[in-house]
DNA sequence: CAGTGGTCTAGACCACTGC
DNA sequence: CAGTGGTCTAGACCACTGA
């Protein structure tokens, strides 16, 4: 462990923090195997049970997966389906066509106040802005504005436009930025002229507004996204304990 | 354990299932202490570590709480604040007045199809219906319809109307039904005449529709509730891992 | 087959709670 | 102070994976 001085925290806790930190710093990358229990036990001179407790804790935090007989692996969060969680589709049951994305514009601008605030940047920092329209069964479903710090994501401006664009893998391969989790805030608005044009809605009808802040393993903001969709398409289910 | 025959499941798993079942059958009631680790270890002739693993699992499921030096206790879920999770308030920051509830009507009727479906009852079963209006700072915020199986909840019809009515404690004391968890589905609608009257809204403006199914520890449906509120008051935050 | 994680045991010591 | 849960150890055996 990096700091053997702070003896007040339990060993299993220090070990899991150490590993979480390695993951945050991309020393251990998604999909990679982490050292085996025996290896960690020997390296840090702690009992196997203590190692197991640390790893179990990381499983609980969603950072790793354990596969018996194979090893323990850094988990790659799957946000591809998050879109689907919120929006209900009307297409026939057998229809499994992927939603399609079309990028409407890509540019770099001085960040509006709310964007720099959301991304924890200095006011006036330049940011990349993407506008994107997501469709299902040929019908527009979500219009998105996506904001990124320009200094880290300039490559996004010049990348060729591929078709089934999932952005997070692109951030990873092009910019070395790995999205670990996201915070979404859902509110309700009414359709304006832009929604009427992009989503084919009637002005004044309910719109669902989804604001998402994507964060790295180290909790640094990576991307801020604001999506608008027809309220009638929205459905969300929560479990309360 | 009740069935020592099924040896294929791990001991810690059988033990936690046994305890979960005791909780489901109200043999162990919310707030009560469960047997100590040592007690369970002796009674079931298993090692302490195995007992601990079983109890840790129950903590993860949200069924118990453990308090060092004191004991392990059946958890009482707190839904009183769920209302607050969805609705943002505008009152001054220092204002901590509790939201108020007023019951508009109480009666028993043949359950509408969607109600009996939600409660997993035979079509045509009689149900209790409550209408309730929840206000904050004197302004109506949520209008609710609450549905209960009449045969189990007839007492709700005749109870005196107390003021700070939290229903779930009433279900427990009057009917012996304990709510363990709930499933909520959020959709968006537009205001109708009823919303205009009860919530002071303009017809056609966005409404948030929250449907909640409350369940016991044994996953049997207890109550189905449908709440409507002004869309402009709605805000919900989710964390995605 | 060797190597991995999963289960289970037995026991020592610590930290906290409540009387 | 006695009793509780929390930490940690050391070691045995099992179940599964993949070459």
Set down the secondary structure blueprint.
Two copies of one chain form a homodimer.
Chain A: H1 11-24, E1 33-34, H2 37-44, H3 48-60, E2 64-67, E3 71-74, H4 82-86, E4 100-110, H5 113-118, E5 126-136, E6 139-149, H6 150-158, H7 167-175, E7 181-190, H8 193-199, E8 206-215, E9 221-230, E10 235-240
Antiparallel strand pairs in A: 1-3, 2-3, 4-5, 5-6, 6-9, 7-8, 8-9
Helix pairs in contact in A: 1-3, 2-3, 6-7
Chain A binds a DNA duplex (19 and 19 nucleotides) through residues 10-12, 36-38, 46-50, 52-53, 55, 66-72.
Q: Uncertain runs of chain A with pLDDT below 50, 5 residues or more?
A: 1-5, 89-96
Determine the number of helices of chain A (DSSP H or I, runs of at least 4 residues): 8
Written as H for each helix and E for each strand, in order along the chain, the element string of chain A is HEHHEEHEHEEHHEHEEE
User: Most extensive interface, residues per chain?
Assistant: A-B, 33 and 32 residues
Describe the global form of chain A: elongated
Oligomer: homodimer
Helix fraction bin of chain A: 25-40%
Beta-strand fraction estimate of chain A = 25-35%
User: Number of DSSP strands of chain A?
Assistant: 10
Please give the radius of gyration of chain A in angstroms.
21 Å
Cα-to-Cα separation, first versus last residue of chain A = 36 Å
Largest sheet of chain A: 6 strands, antiparallel
- Please identify the structural class of chain A as seen in this structure: alpha+beta
Average pLDDT metric of chain A: 88
Give the strand order, joined by hyphens, for the main sheet of chain A. Answer: 4-5-6-9-8-7
């Amino acid at each position: 462990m990096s700091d053997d001085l702070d003896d007040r925290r339990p060993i299993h806790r220090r070990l899991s923090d150490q590993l979480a930190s390695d993951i945050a710093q991309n020393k251990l990358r998604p999909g990679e195997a982490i050292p085996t229990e025996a290896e960690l036990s020997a390296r840090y001179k702690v009992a196997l049970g203590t190692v197991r407790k640390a790893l179990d804790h990381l499983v609980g935090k969603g950072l790793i997966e354990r596969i018996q007989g194979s090893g323990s692996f850094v988990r790659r969060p799957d946000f591809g389906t998050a879109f689907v969680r919120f929006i209900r589709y009307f297409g026939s049951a057998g229809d499994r066509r992927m939603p399609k994305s079309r990028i409407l514009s890509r540019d770099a601008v001085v960040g509006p106040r709310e964007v720099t605030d959301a991304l924890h940047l200095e006011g006036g920092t330049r940011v990349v802005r993407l506008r994107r329209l997501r469709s299902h069964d040929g019908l527009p479903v979500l219009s998105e504005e996506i904001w990124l710090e320009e200094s880290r994501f300039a490559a996004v401006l010049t990348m060729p436009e591929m078709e089934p664009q999932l952005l997070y893998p692109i951030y990873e391969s092009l910019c070395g930025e790995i999205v670990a989790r996201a915070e979404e805030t859902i509110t309700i608005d009414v359709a304006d002229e832009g929604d009427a044009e992009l989503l084919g809605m009637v002005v004044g009808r309910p719109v669902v507004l989804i604001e998402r802040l994507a964060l790295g393993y180290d909790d640094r903001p990576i991307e801020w996204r604001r999506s608008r969709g027809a309220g009638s398409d929205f459905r969300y289910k929560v479990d309360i304990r």
